[in-house]
Amino acid sequence: MSHALILLAHGSRDPRWKAPFESLADTLKDRRSTPLRMAYMELCEPSLEATVQELSESGITRADILPLFFAAGRHLREDVPGQITALGEAHPDIELTLLPPVGQHPAFVDALAGIIDERAGD
């Protein structure tokens, strides 16, 4: 089974907003042996739909979707699962799994605490 990871961010009309996400994805790609893609829920390209289509056409059969959100609000409880359901129907050859948002992972909390300590001088 061929596996990929999709990093999912919200999106913005401001094209400069994407730069940190693209930089993060580029850095993480070098650390992974499996494909990693950046996608956006709305307002930016590549969309989640375009990314899933590209992965499906390249032979990927499983993709985990990691939301780069602090918490699961309406978008992650309703909008994104709806997108994933529609994408699963459009691309039955690829299994899509929505992971919990990155902000809920204990390692994220530890990393954020380290940044705060560094910036605050504690």
How would you describe this structure to a colleague?
The chain has 122 residues and is an alpha/beta fold. 43% of the residues lie in helices and 18% in strands. The protein has one domain: Rossmann fold (3-Layer(aba) Sandwich). The protein contains 4 helices and 4 strands. A 4-stranded parallel beta sheet has the order 2-1-3-4, sandwiched between helices. β3 (62-67), α3 (74-90) and β4 form a beta-alpha-beta unit. The radius of gyration is 15 Å and the shape is globular. The mean pLDDT is 92.
What is the compact description of this entry?
By secondary structure, the chain is α/β, with parallel strands linked by helices. Helix content is 43%, strand content 18%.
What features would you highlight for this structure?
4 helices, Rossmann fold, globular, 43% helix, 122 residues, 4 strands
The CATH topology label is Rossmann fold
Number of domains: 1
Query: Major beta sheet, specifics?
Result: 4 strands, parallel
From the alpha-carbon coordinates, what is the Rg to the nearest angstrom? 15 Å
Q: How much helicity do the residues have? A: 40-55%
Residue share in β-strands: 15-25%
Topology pattern, helix = H, strand = E: EHEHEHEH
**What does the average pLDDT come to?**
92
Unreliable residue runs: none
Shape descriptor: globular
Assembly level: single chain
Structural class: alpha/beta
**Biggest sheet, strands in spatial order?**
2-1-3-4
**What is the end-to-end distance?**
46 Å
